[in-house]
Amino acid sequence: MMNDMAEFSLDSIVPVNDYRCPPELKREKYSSLYDWVNAHLEHPVFNDLADCLWATPKDSTISAPERAFLYASMREMKAKNTLEIGTFTAGTTQLMACAAYQDGGMVYTIDPYGADRAPGLIAAWPKELAERVIFQPKFSTEFLGPLSNNPKFDLVFIDGNHRYPNVLHDLYASDESLVPGGIIIGDNAEQLDVMDACRHFLRDNEGYEGVGVHLTLPIPGSGSREIGKYVDTELRPRGARSAFVILRKPERNFLQDRAITFWVANIRELAAPVIKITGMSELASEIRVVMHLNSHPRDKHNPNLQSLQFIESYKVSPGKFSLNIDCGLELSPEADGQVNLATIALHQVTRLGLISDLCVTWGDTELLPNSNFLPS
């Protein structure tokens, strides 16, 4: 690999192959994501990097500051595995491949509509870059599904379908595949659905940090490269022409008791709001069920479901057990597709004895367990 690197220069692709993260921008020097991101945007080395990436790679559709932050983040963490959701013209993929090439990493990129487009674009690159990319023509629901066999990712770049339920799914599914302390970068956060989904995700995932980076770009054709930048932690749209979000996963699990969380996205209907929980209990025990049902923030038909919570405790006997829970929810028929995510956390109240083989179903739908919350 070292011989290849000596023979191949990135200058013809991106003129930043000598970029090194300044010591004063290292993540460990900052107590919050907000301070770390702000320090980047104000640092001359970072702004020089953004200037170098103003028009390259030519097929990248994201802004120069976002390119710079994506590239700098990968280089700083020496990312071994990175995921891009939404290949499109593969311009941003090429930028990520340049970072991966220098640190011996791999870029996985998915696009269900890119089978006839992306492979040819990637094959036209220098082989040193092309061999750093694995393209799959899949939806994120398939690629990040429960039967997938992917590595854990250091960074996930989300630039796929920007509708609220799709973004929310991609955030939850990415979290499942992200290393502790990993980064999620979401594009097109100037769109209300993207910001809404990110706020929703942050509200329900303790320990995560999130910031929005709002950009005022120069008028096309003006020749100016002056960019206004504003960072906030509220993730509220501010009328910027371009924006992106940065989320950081906590280094550790914040749940202190035995718990496992099950989740399901894109709920289309709730004809029979009965949840069935089955499992095996070593001893007599007590389980606390904490359920959150979240609808679209602009759901006019079911405004009370925007963050509905159901909490109840149940005693179970030794051996196999089955609980049928009627949470008493009804949806307006007009709200089809509006309820986007349900999470059900099971907490073992009594700490004696093992509870195992848990399964949660909602009608005919089996919910997915989130391994981040499996008991240790």
Structural Rg: 22 Å
> Helical proportion?
10-25%
State the domain count. Answer: 2
Main sheet record = 8 strands, mixed
The count of DSSP E runs of length 2 or more, i.e. the number of strands, is 17
Helices and strands: which structural class? alpha+beta
Distance between the termini: 39 Å
Summarize the model shown.
With about 375 residues, the protein is of the alpha+beta class.
Provide tags for this entry.
Rossmann fold; disordered N terminus; 25% helix; Jelly Rolls; disordered C terminus; 10 helices; five-stranded antiparallel β-sheet; 2 domains; alpha+beta; single chain; 376 residues; eight-stranded mixed β-sheet
Secondary structure topology:
Blueprint: H1 2-7, H2 33-42, H3 44-52, H4 64-77, E1 81-85, H5 91-103, E2 106-110, H6 118-123, H7 127-130, E3 133-136, H8 140-143, E4 153-158, H9 164-177, E5 178-186, H10 192-204, E6 209-216, E7 228-232, E8 242-248, E9 259-265, E10 274-281, E11 285-295, E12 308-316, E13 319-326, E14 339-348, E15 355-362, E16 365-366, E17 368-370
Helix pairs in contact: 3-4, 4-5, 9-10
Description:
- The chain has about 375 residues and is an alpha+beta fold.
- It has 10 helices and 17 strands.
- It has 2 domains: about 1-250, Rossmann fold; about 260-375, Sandwich (Jelly Rolls), CATH 2.60.120.
